């Protein structure tokens, strides 16, 4: 007998970097576990319509601006679920309307919660290590708590680089960030296994809502309030903000300093990585000023 197939709309609700999570009752399928808000489609609904309705009914807030986040097909022993995921930002003025017992969790806390197996890839995408090393050569970090942004130019990617990239397994590729131009140059199978894609500010500003590929994590370089706002409007997952301090690579660039950095990212809803003159020892200071993590070249 074939397993039943259920389509479910899931919302990733974000407020200042935190994610809204609830608890599934024991009587529910995959009960006794944490969950993101959402539920089954009603007849005739599109995935986004189902998501909007479920969030209004379950969470108690109405949100207009949604971004398509991912699509996950997962087969349990007794049922097949198709998860249609969207994300949206929750403004301050709606916080008091949220029904209990929904709870806001940091991304670090998410990895320690007990979610259904179908949510595994969602957690992987939402969680970011706190350090990103920027490298002009294709290298990999020695531990899982750092990502590497391979700062390549599409016209300078050698065949040796592509061969080396193709030899990496899925876990190794999950630690790598590549620029969107290089990413588009890759063969489809390899391209599909790259989890995180980088956008320069000029590339970011050329894109519109709906242009980002669904299911791929994007991090954008931002140097001002306009680009930072645009990154959120089109659905980026995280941003680099720079330069915080004067650097050897860009000695003529005007550094933000920590106070201006904090003012710039004050309303940002997604993880911000401080870049420019950073070292790992700056993490505590950066987080005091609102950063999620750090990125750098020489000291990482």
From TrEMBL:
Catalytic activity: 8-oxo-GTP + H2O = 8-oxo-GMP + diphosphate + H(+); 8-oxo-dGTP + H2O = 8-oxo-dGMP + diphosphate + H(+)
Any GO BP: DNA replication
Cofactor(s) needed by this chain: Mg(2+)
Protein name: 8-oxo-dGTP diphosphatase
PROSITE patterns in alphabetical order: NUDIX, NUDIX_BOX
Species the sequence originates in: Acinetobacter nosocomialis
Pfam name, any one: NUDIX_4
Enzyme Commission (EC) number: 3.6.1.55
InterPro entries named among the record's database cross-references: Aldolase_TIM (IPR013785), MutT-like (IPR047127), MutY_C (IPR029119), Nudix_hydrolase (IPR020476), NUDIX_hydrolase-like_dom_sf (IPR015797), NUDIX_hydrolase_CS (IPR020084), NUDIX_hydrolase_dom (IPR000086), ThiamineP_synth_sf (IPR036206)
Family the entry assigns: Belongs to the Nudix hydrolase family.
